[in-house]
Design brief:
There is one protein chain. By secondary structure, this protein is α+β, with helices and mostly antiparallel strands. The chain folds into two domains: 38 residues; 59 residues, IHF-like DNA-binding proteins (HU Protein, Chain A), CATH 4.10.520.10. 39% of the residues lie in helices and 27% in strands. A hairpin with a 6-residue loop joins β3 and β4. α1 packs across α2. It is elongated, with a radius of gyration of 19 Å.
Length: 99
């Protein structure tokens, strides 16, 4: 599903215009980006948790040359699925029950 399809589905489900649904999705994405940038955790209970995790520096290997390379420390976003999202993926939630 791409962004246009998500906006269309949101508009239909919530009874919004496509413009309003697009603004709502853009606002949500902006909030998530700001939270991740500042290291905050977003928790939508039972659905998902978006947090930030530090990966320590480590040694790696270039698969083509087999040369050992240093991989610096980095910060990455982590998304964990909650029970409701996991159940939906396994087909345990009926189509009409998914909000």
């Amino acid at each position: 599903m791409n962004k246009t399809q998500v906006v269309d589905a949101m508009a239909e489900h919530a009874g919004l215009t496509k413009t309003d649904a697009s603004k709502a999705l853009d606002a949500f994405m902006h909030v998530v980006e700001k939270a991740v940038a500042t290291g905050e955790t977003i928790s939508l209970v039972g659905y998902l948790v978006i947090s930030v995790k530090k990966r320590l520096a480590r040694m790696g290997r270039n698969p083509q040359t087999k040369a050992v390379v240093h991989i610096p420390e980095t910060t990455v976003p982590v998304i964990k699925a909650g029970k409701r999202l996991k159940d939906a993926a396994m087909g345990r939630i009926a189509e009409e029950a998914v909000v």
